[in-house]
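Notes, p. 3: input format for complexes.
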Amino acid sequence: MKLLTHPTPIGSRFEAYGPSKLDEILRRFPVPEELAETIRLFSLVLPFRVNEYVLSELIDWTRVPEDPIFQLVFPQDGMLSKADEHALAKVATGPGRRAELPAVVKRIRQSLNPHPSGQLELNVPSLDGENLRGLQHKYRQTVLYFPQQGQTCHTYCTYCFRWAQFVGDQDLRFAVKEADELVRYLHAHPEVTDVLVTGGDPMVMSAERLRVHLEPLLAVDTVRTIRIGTKSVAYWPQRFVTDADADDTLRLYQQVVDSGRTLAVMAHYSHARELSTDIAQQAIQRILSTGARMYCQSPLIAHVNDDADALAELWAGEFTAGAVPYYLFVARDTGPHDYFKVPLSRAYELFAAAYRQLPGLARTIRGPVMSATPGKVIVDGTAEIGGESLLQLRFLQGREPALTGRPFFARHDRDAAWLDELDLLPGTPPDILGAVRSQLETKEDR
Ligand code: SF4
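Output follows (446 residues plus iron/sulfur cluster):
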């Protein structure tokens, strides 16, 4: 497949705007002063990063604060409790109290469940008695790989489940500089056919740096699919169109495809707005022109995309662009989770209402799905059995392969928002019961 010719450059060089640029941003895009104060204050605790494209092209400033992309990127009133907000305000602005700020910030961050997964410890594989940091091996065929230089993003999502690493917490210690250990592990584990390169966002790396991580995988015959988890196509599509190394990046993609492997760009889109610009469409077409495939996924997030029409528009837009609508995830319990969470029952209703609007070929979307400790669990619907209202669930993927594909039932609790909040029916098979209880014990992966 030939690369497309480079179109007229649009946009500019990538530059990340962090909290130190907030005043400048809010001068250019004024919001009510009370909201500006909240943003300044909360960004002391929650990670904040944005770029020019998101500011100028994606956010509809006439609809602030309800605008979904504004909600996606800027800290909002309600993301911290009133008690924490007051404590923060006291030390951030109170006379002579500034020295207390770091301790207050740290306390609030700790209270926001900064390490929801624990999965980085739980799924770390070992080789020759040595733990291999920067890798996770949870499902038999798939290894996750965290390159050290890909542990940030072009813009931060306020709902990010890995937010702690963006505010200086230590998940980064799990990432690795080079692929040597991964390659050794893959040779020792021929059952692994898929490698998911993830982060942060690996597409923040230059083409040259990405090559250092991808090329060694092409020497491992048993690896048949390389997936790249990224939100760059939504947050900085210039990465594939006008960045200085956009063409080199696409040549690297093509090299992977030419090796006979499947290259899957696992694109994170939260809202149809992210597909609406010309450059967003060009980026998708350029990626697809290399022979790579695109699969799209997103969590279901209150204030951003908890609307059946918005979800249907997103999935239809992905399909029309030539990508595959893939997963609608349930948000994990971290950061401002109370602000963003959508209970499972409501999540299913939204999913079903959006799904019904899709043409048959776009019904590749699956959800709502919890990526939980024992595996991926989908809410398949509700049922009335013996006069009782039930939630119908199923393991899409099990850490224990025997769980995969197995259905089970829980009492229909309209407030339950995660697996460990469900009351499973008597008679649930012991291995399923045990797997779900393991979630309760570890609180992992939420
Ligand atoms: S793109 Fe993913 S890793 Fe990056 S901030 Fe958003 S949710 Fe987090």
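The longest strand covers residues 375-385.
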